[in-house]
Amino acid sequence: MLQALSNVLVTPAEMTAVDKDAARSGIDSFSLMRSAGTAVSAAALRLYPEALRFVVLCGPGNNGGDGYIAAAALADTGASVAVFALGDAAMLKGDAARARDAFALVPRPLDAYGPQSGDVVIDALFGAGLARDVPDEARTVIEQVNASGVPVLAVDLPSGIDGRTGEIRGLSFVAAHTVTFMAAKPGHLLMPGRARCGTLEIFDIGIPARLVADRAGDLHVNTPAMWEQHLGALDPATHKYKRGHLAVLCGGPVSTGAARLSAAAGLRAGAGLVTLASPAEALAVNAAHLTAVMLKEINNAAGLAAWLKDRRLNAFVLGPGFGVGKKARDFVLMLCGRALVLDADGISSFREGREQLFDRIAAEGGEVVMTPHEGEFARLFPDIAEDAALSKIEKAQAAARLSHAVIVYKGPDTVVAAPSGRAAVNVNAPPWLATAGSGDVLAGIIGAHLAQGMPAFQAAASAVWRHGEAGVVAGRTATAESLVESIAPLRGNA
């Protein structure tokens, strides 16, 4: 059943609604808690068979209830178990109280715990629903456990991480392993929370998949399931003139490398033809470096307008090394009715006058993809970037609605969002992708996918995935050039 939910992301609020729906449908809520706690105990025994003691830290809510069930199950196997509770365990109600009663021993106060060699900590304090800073009593224990180096197995989400945003609420555990239930939450994938979850494991605790799907929004993990129905457009056996003509617009003679990287990536990613559009003063330097990529002299808006009469040109990349200013703005506004990747300088050129860009995209109806990193996002969407209440996903969604474009909000937790609200979080990119020219390569891959006829959202999401896979292949010593050479054919069910 979890296969049907494998790429679904569910917010904490949506998961709360799912739990209520399950109870209304007649599913015993305590049986679900028992399944969750038992799954935690099974993971603990499998992962840490050498543990001298399992220390279960239980909070005042249902996450704590999962912890009590896990503690009882571990004790039944003969393992050494100690339970420490935040607050008065006698005040628990409902399923959490039943779970507490299933553990035969009286829990000790949380502040009585001190990490010992051989301990494995099971963090069942707060889980994914935390939306406030952790209390001081919990902070002290979290600090001690993190400093001690004893392994932490988190129940649902390491305590201190906001399940909606991935932000740290004052302080959080750094887990080696996290067990969650039914579906991943945004906090598992968004930084900095993602870096503190360790290995993520999702358990089916018996809630019907339809109940989860009914409450889940249009938010997913970026996997081939998001776009594999469009892979026919990327068939490498197709005739080159049916695989699209990608044009990459280049800047002046001292900043040509970025555009050539985009062009090379576009060709490698499957565009049938790729042309680098260069001003006259950069023709010689570009000609000296190009082979399969073609070269076209384009000096000004009039030259671009004349070239655009050739409708076989069906996708464009503008931004890498192009230069910030009026020329970039003029060119971009001419391309808003086409398939366009707007990157780097192309984005920064609209720091002032962004409304003109957004209005033109809306009026022309082109397949426009913008690929801002953190700084570029703040320049183009300052009001959204400054809203601390929004998660990275919500910021990308808001920017997509405002701009009428697909947004690729780059970073270690890249988010792809469409104006409709559909969004995907990417997880396959290795950290060494953060290298000079990597974004130029990504822009070229997106351009190639657009040139081959993929819709903008799917073209962007699949390109981000493909870029991550290329990074894995290129390895820790990857450069932008080796990244291009590592772009492999894109296949479904990867």
UniProtKB/TrEMBL annotation:
K(+) binds at N63, D123, S159. It catalyses: (6S)-NADHX + ADP = AMP + phosphate + NADH + H(+); (6R)-NADPHX = (6S)-NADPHX; (6R)-NADHX = (6S)-NADHX; (6S)-NADPHX + ADP = AMP + phosphate + NADPH + H(+). Residues 223-494 form the YjeF C-terminal domain. InterPro entries: Carbohydrate_kinase_pred_CS, CARKD, Nnr, Ribokinase-like, YjeF_N_dom, YjeF_N_dom_sf. Residues 15-213 form the YjeF N-terminal domain. Its EC number is 4.2.1.136, 5.1.99.6. This is Bifunctional NAD(P)H-hydrate repair enzyme.
